[in-house]
# Entry
Amino acid sequence: MECVRGWDRFWFVPTGPQTLGVIRVLAGSLILYTHLVWSMELSTFFGSQSVIPPDYRELLAGSNSMVWSHFDWLPSDAWLWPVHLLGLVVMLLFTVGLWTRVTSILTAILVISYANRATGALFGLDQINSLLAMYLAISPCGGWLSVDSLRERGSCLAPGPDSVMANIGTRMIQIHMCIVYLFAGMGKLQGSSWWNGEAIWGALATYEYQTLDLTFLAEASWLVNLLTWGTVAWEASYAFLVWPRLTRPFVLAFALFVHLGIGIAMGMMTFGLAMIIGNLAFVSPALIRSIMDCGSGRPAAT
# Structure
């Protein structure tokens, strides 16, 4: 049956590790940076006397939940810094692609563990970091642009073999990004300010989030309306328009515009970068390979 063959092609056709390699380097760098930032207030958020006690997590998730954190098992706060520094080393090794099969799994566990302990102080950035780390952990993300490639094949640009798990890991990121945007768009459609075109103005006029003064847009209500409706239409349609090759470049270009705009104008650059990195899952390994071939002066791969 054609539908069964299509399902098999979607999930089980071996693909190259180039896309996952790029995502690993970028997501790993962002993960390392965001966990370095925790170092500024490590005991405040993760110590035994933190502002977010473990009981608060149980209150939100329920006493019988499986939400755990390795910080719960430390015998005293004297272990905080050694354990934290060891975690940062693991994340660095994952980012550069050394022993990636192990460090990718450990990084995913650490990212989830930090998020579980800091319940109540989390934002969208932590959730996107978690989903990227989780799907990279099940894929051969160290197969390109990594120290592992350098050790095994003599060059970090020498890709590992095509594999089914590379395809599955990429597909999982793609599907999860579609779910994120679909529910974001559906949530916005429940708010009247998105229907009447005022929602973007509400964000731009809030001084708490301003890094650029865009209040001059009060004189251009038509542009505010256009940005508002364009954003919600893009989010609601992302899951449907990102798959066809004809519309995918426009969807991804809009993603770049939206998330860079949010980062620059509203001071949420790390979240914007995380979303852009997630969108890279829709860039094919063949395209990355062609770009690298052109950049090196070699004939483009066919």
